[in-house]
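Researcher: Structure prediction, please.
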Amino acid sequence: MSRIPRKLIRICVPIAVYIVIWQLLSMLVGSSLLLPSPKETAIAAYRILSTAEGWRSILLSVLRILFGFALGCICGAVLAILTSTSKTMAWLLHPLRTIVKTTPITSFALILLISLVSGYVPVAVAAIVVTPMIWRTTEESILALDPKLTEMGKVYFKPYQQFRFIILPQIVPQFFATASTALGFAWKAVITAEILALPKFGIGNQMFQDKLYLDYADLFAWTFLVIVFSVAIEMLLDSLLRKAGWRHD
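Model: Predicted structure follows.
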């Protein structure tokens, strides 16, 4: 059996099992209001994807996720450099990382609603969630740099070559491994913040409206679409990293 069919089997069989269990539970409950069937959810998802409003909500949510994720990666990397190269900065900033990690997403969203337009709140919340994850991993990677390689680089390479050939290869794999996990957290953060901030368009807003009007088929459909787009974007990111030569698996 070739590699691709084997991989498809590993993916499709568990999904098929989950769908069967879902269908059986839906039949057992006997009410689409409480637990819509896979068929009802698929029809609702198709209806969502058939409207311009549905695609606009998806696109804006994805843009908020990607922008917040990128902002969090940048902030995390900068803070990691500061705290790994300065004991004073580490002393001052490490408590901030603990505060950010332990504060609920809802608290950040509600506080930011006071000063930000609702559409920007999910972006800021995603950045706040991603930052400490990237910060910690990057800082640990910098502190774990091989001193012998670093010293050798100072002798044989120019500064930019040291960074490219000595430092980056030691930092990047772990960075991207954490970034992949952080992207999933960014999805959760943005959707949660959209439910609270209720921007005009966004997946979170649509889910809130479906919950408000007890349209659980659409609510399940939006949840299904979030999972699909989240996995698709993560696979796309991983594919781009592989083509660029930065494998993290």
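Model: DSSP finds ten helices and no strands in the chain.
Researcher: Thanks, that helps.
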